Amino acid sequence: MHTGPLSKIFTIIETIVANQNTGMTYAEIVGTTGLPKSSVHRALKELTQMGYLYFSPDTKKYRGSMRLAAIGADVMANFDLREHTHPYLLELHRETEHTSNTGIRDGRVGVFIDKIESKDYGIKLFSEVGKTFPLHCTSLGKVLLAWGSPDITEALLEGPLEPATENTITDPQKLIEELKAVRHKGYAVDYEEITRGIMCVAAPVCGVNGDVVCAISITFPSYIYHDRGMEPEIEAVTRYAAELSGEFKQQSEAPSIPSSAHDERVGV
Fold first, then answer.
1. Range(s) for CATH 1.10.10.10 in the chain?
2. Burial (Cβ within 10 Å: 0-12, 13-18, ≥19) of residue 251
3. CATH class of 79-251
4. In what order do the strands lie in the sheet with 198-206?
5. How far is the C-alpha of 14 from the C-alpha of 62, rounded, in Å?
6. Which CATH class is domain 5-76?
7. How far, in Å, CA of 200 to CA of 215, rounded?
8. What is the DSSP string of 88-132?
9. Of 66, 110, 98, 116, residue with least CA distance to 200
10. Residues above pLDDT 90, as percent of the chain
11. For position 14, what pLDDT does the model report?
12. Distance separating alpha carbons of residues 124 and 195, to the nearest angstrom
């Protein structure tokens, strides 16, 4: 547990930002954090003077400032998603020996941002880093649709769902039902829907705020499924996706303050 001055400052900042919509009074901040009044007072004074917090004389409440928001924006603008996901994708590939992919949504299409190639099965794969893919007939796309904005799904359903193979879902109502099933199961499967002879399993990766930021998948020949099923593939993809999501969640968690902090005397 971290109880140093820097830890206390970040606890105060994160507490205020978590209540950004209403703002927080000095008393509310002290009560919520359990930190000494003197520590909170000093931190609020310095953070306000530095421009990271805004204090309203009318409401007596503190909020995060635009300067603080700018720091977050800079972090997100330069956040390398691939750098964080690649080690997990590599382990997924090593364990399954299948081609592993990471995909994100860009408007009404998906984009491959990472790929680790497996051995050649004699079938040309659709995936290439930087290449776009349709959302309605790929496992990555189904995941991104299932946990994505309803507006994107509605817009996609308004247009024709172009078939890539005879297994492609082209009926809007069937796709809606498929996405409901994906959300319920926690993963998506591409049953030779974009390439004959090739299947994919994908699972969602959640970011620091719980939203799905990308999806990871493995690609394998359909004969594997017909020979022994695909439970090992499903288990591996969902496990690595959960581990990666857990890493993002861990990064977002505020440092915990031990109960002894509540008993500290003012001025200590």
1. 5-76
2. exposed
3. alpha beta
4. 132-134, 109-116, 99-106, 212-221, 198-206, 188-191
5. 12
6. mainly alpha
7. 12
8. HHHHHHHHH-SEEEEEEEETTEEEEEEEE-----SS--S--TT-E
9. 98
10. 60
11. 86
12. 9
